[in-house]
Amino acid sequence: MNQVFPTPENGVAPRISIVVPARNEARNLEIVLPMLPAVHEVILVDGNSVDDTVATAQRVMPDIRVVHQTRKGKGNALACGFEAATGDIIVMFDADGSADPAEIPRFVEALTSGADVAKGSRFVHGGGSEDITHFRALGNWGLNALTNVLLGTKYTDLCYGYNAFWKRIVPSLELLPSDLAPRADGQMHNGDGFEIETILNCRIAALGYDIVEVPSVEKLRIHGVSNLNAISDGFRVLRVILEERRRRPSAAARLRRSIREAAVTAAEATNEPAPVFAVVDGARLDARLGARQDVA
Ligand SMILES: Nc1nc2c(ncn2[C@@H]2O[C@H](COP(=O)(O)OP(=O)(O)O)[C@@H](O)[C@H]2O)c(=O)[nH]1
Ligand SMILES: [Mg+2]
């Protein structure tokens, strides 16, 4: 696909991969896919749909890449899509018509302006939702507040699916690999379900990435009904928050260790004393603090 959008000022347009998880979304994809801007690639991650999801997607967008998820759940679908993506920027994009394609430039601009992650939010000025129920809004608010208290984050919308980030951060997120076997009892692994957004948000904060919240208006799903169960999926999110809080110190320690190693390697290469900073993947990393800063 020839990407015609966007062209940042430095003239080098990052390649954009739009990852679309879809489970029985044929009627929505027919409307949504033609509205997407031309980008490097659109990846449909099919969740064993029993309708014409794949055939419809290929009909309305012949060069779409189709990936079949390896287990069950939206989390597994996204992890498979992230692994398959070949662009510089990944945009997570729901298939049900709730995500507005016109907002994609806003997400991309936040990234090209220096953020590592552009996180959509329905609850900042300029954002909103036509789709969320009062009950879900309340649950999201409570889980969001708990995360902010326990993990020291400043999120306004923990469980939102419209986000974008640089592909280079994917390995550091340590998501469940696509080739992990499904659980023997038929249940989903922790991380394979709707708790994925919470896992992403907890980890990007723990790793010290630069996060910018982007106002986003969630539209009504066009056809069909949500796959989410507010109560059982709410408990999955709660469990993740508590687990990620326990995991946080070790994630930060791992990042600091890899930065220190990079700093020592850089010192050996130049025969200079170990620098405090190392430049890895275009980011200036502080070996003492684990802080990171993008450099030109
Ligand atoms: N591949 C795949 N996609 C899924 C799965 N569950 C949900 N999705 C997709 O994820 C997106 C969001 O799901 P949705 O049911 O609308 O949940 P809600 O937006 O939280 O109400 C939609 O595009 C769904 O088709 C799944 O198990 N596999
Ligand atoms: Mg939806």
TrEMBL record:
<dbReference type="Pfam" id="PF00535">
    <property type="entry name" value="Glycos_transf_2"/>
</dbReference>
<comment type="similarity">
    <text>Belongs to the glycosyltransferase 2 family.</text>
</comment>
<feature type="domain" description="Glycosyltransferase 2-like">
    <location>
        <begin position="17"/>
        <end position="169"/>
    </location>
</feature>
<keyword id="KW-0808">Transferase</keyword>
<dbReference type="InterPro" id="IPR029044">
    <property type="entry name" value="Nucleotide-diphossugar_trans"/>
</dbReference>
<dbReference type="GO" id="GO:0016740">
    <property type="term" value="F:transferase activity"/>
</dbReference>
<dbReference type="InterPro" id="IPR050256">
    <property type="entry name" value="Glycosyltransferase_2"/>
</dbReference>
<protein>
    <submittedName>
        <fullName>Glycosyltransferase involved in cell wall biosynthesis</fullName>
    </submittedName>
</protein>
<dbReference type="InterPro" id="IPR001173">
    <property type="entry name" value="Glyco_trans_2-like"/>
</dbReference>
